[in-house]
Design brief:
Elements lengths: L22 E3 L4 H10 L14 E3 L5 H4 L3 H6 L20 H6 L4 H25 L2 H11 L17
Antiparallel strand pairs: 1-2
Keywords: DNA-binding, Metal-binding, Zinc, Zinc-finger
Pfam families: THAP (PF05485)
GO molecular function: DNA binding; zinc ion binding
């Protein structure tokens, strides 16, 4: 096995420390190579044009940036193929980028959870102060609320 190390500054992945990770060759096309190295904050002039350097999978969205990701993962392909327009976009290993680009996932999930709780609380409050007929109308409306992640809210009828 050939020893590979990630060219991205502050990334410590190598084929020895992370043997399960994929390493992608930096393009040899001068324009694309320069762009990739600049995105990684590596001086393109410090690496000779014919030197084969790599970036690890941590800097890509492998499912979107590759052509045959599923085939590769399932074992039907020995080599992973990058899409022509693929560029490295993830640089969480670099301290200054980590603080500027927080992962919005968990905070968004918390927002939706709070929103669901508010909706359920409001519905329960209305349910306790309305007549049975109004309650049934409200329940029909509530059961059709669909959130962005595809969750459907169901209210349990309390007697």
């Amino acid at each position: 096995m050939v020893y590979k190390w990630c060219v991205v500054p502050q990334c410590t992945n190598t084929t020895i420390s992370s043997p399960h990770k994929l390493f992608v060759s930096v393009p040899t096309n001068p324009k694309r190579r320069k762009m990739w190295l600049r995105l990684a904050r590596r001086d393109p002039k410090s690496i000779l044009a014919h030197t084969n350097v790599f970036m690890c999978e941590d800097h890509f969205n492998m499912e979107k940036d590759t052509i045959n990701y599923l085939k590769y993962k399932m074992g039907f392909s020995q080599k992973i193929l990058l899409a022509d327009e693929a560029v490295p976009t993830k640089f969480h290993c670099q301290e200054d980028r980590r603080s500027r680009l927080p992962d919005a996932g968990p905070s968004r999930e918390v927002f939706f959870k709070r929103q669901r709780i508010d909706i359920v609380t409001e519905c329960l409050r209305r349910h306790s102060t309305t007549t049975h007929t109004e309650s049934l109308q409200n329940d029909d409306m509530i059961q059709e609320i669909i959130e962005p992640k595809g969750y459907v809210i169901y209210i349990i009828q309390m007697s």
